[in-house]
Amino acid sequence: MKNHVVTRLSPSGVSKEVGHYTHITKIKPNATFYTFSGQIGADLGGDIPNDFNQQVENTFINISNLLKSVDLEPDNVIKVNIWSIVEIDWEYFDKIYCDFFGEISPSMTIAYVNALGLDSIKIEIEIWAAG
């Protein structure tokens, strides 16, 4: 990790992770804590493509731009919450996710839900960060 505020831990005595996440994310004292609104797969013009994987890609572009706007990087992310209304294409998703976060990913929760804010939204991702 490039920053000295966030530490990721996977202790013994708990089950091995079943995906790309870390069981514990520790934040140093006096760090600035950021919460971000959930991001969706709209492009920069506000259009939401019908293709799920394009929504995934656009969502990570939006998350990257949010982090940059406050001088943070993906390794500052401490928690990822993912909500999807369709089954996630894990091969595609994991490539985008791992390219974004690198080898050691933040803590994560994934849930399949019946609906999101608009009918056209298939996935929403919320992040928390510290810097």
Automatic annotation (TrEMBL):
Transmembrane segments: none annotated. InterPro entries: RutC-like_sf (IPR035959), YjgF/YER057c/UK114 (IPR006175). It is an enzyme of class 3 (hydrolase). The gene is amnD. Keywords: Hydrolase. Pfam families: Ribonuc_L-PSP. It comes from the Bacteria. PANTHER family: BLR7761 PROTEIN, YJGH FAMILY PROTEIN. Its EC number is 3.5.99.5. Gene3D superfamilies: RutC-like (3.30.1330.40). One of its GO terms (molecular function) is 2-aminomuconate deaminase activity. This is 2-aminomuconate deaminase. It comes from Anaerotignum propionicum DSM 1682.
